[in-house]
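Reopening this ticket.

The earlier resolution said the output was attached, but the attachment link was broken on my side. Pasting everything inline this time so it's all in one place.
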Amino acid sequence: MEKMKLNIQQFASIGLKRFRFGVLLENGLSYESPKSLEGAIESKVSLNLANAKLYGDDQVNDELDEFTDGTMTIGVVDDPDDIFAELLGREERNIDDSETDKQYVSKSDDIAPYVGFGHVVPKRKNGKKVYKVEFFPKVKFKPFVADKTTKNDSLTFTTPSIEGTIYENVEKEWLYQATFADEDDANAYLDSLFTPAA
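Inline output:
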């Protein structure tokens, strides 16, 4: 399926689903088999744009805004050690002689891989539900340690969030979007963006 960048359509968002990522391969366009993060809670994106203005006759004759990079912050229900080890470049080791008990070690020289990252956003359009896919083809996430709090008189959930940097890929693309009437079609499109290695 051809990858396309579509115009942003402003509909009311009513949910967030299916955080998916795949490690970007050396060719800069293909990915390892995608994996899911557990429980999408939120996704916030801010962009950094290079701005240039051309002045002539004491006025602005032209103006250019160009994407440089962006920051993505995502919240999830849980941060399983094995999944986040792959996302952040952590080392997996056996505990003693066990083949099933694993420990995941963060080191000062860890190098997180570039990944493709996407999700599905349920929306309302003209009284009907639609499903918007957003896919960022090149992202690198930063090490983190989730906040914790002790139990008290009121029950609260503490969930992890992780920050990443959005880059353009080798084709100068940084975001793909498409909206579907059927959720299965949206899911299939998202999965298709993780082009498997030949």
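Reporter confirms the inline version is readable. The longest strand covers residues 59-76. The first helix runs from residue 81 to 88.
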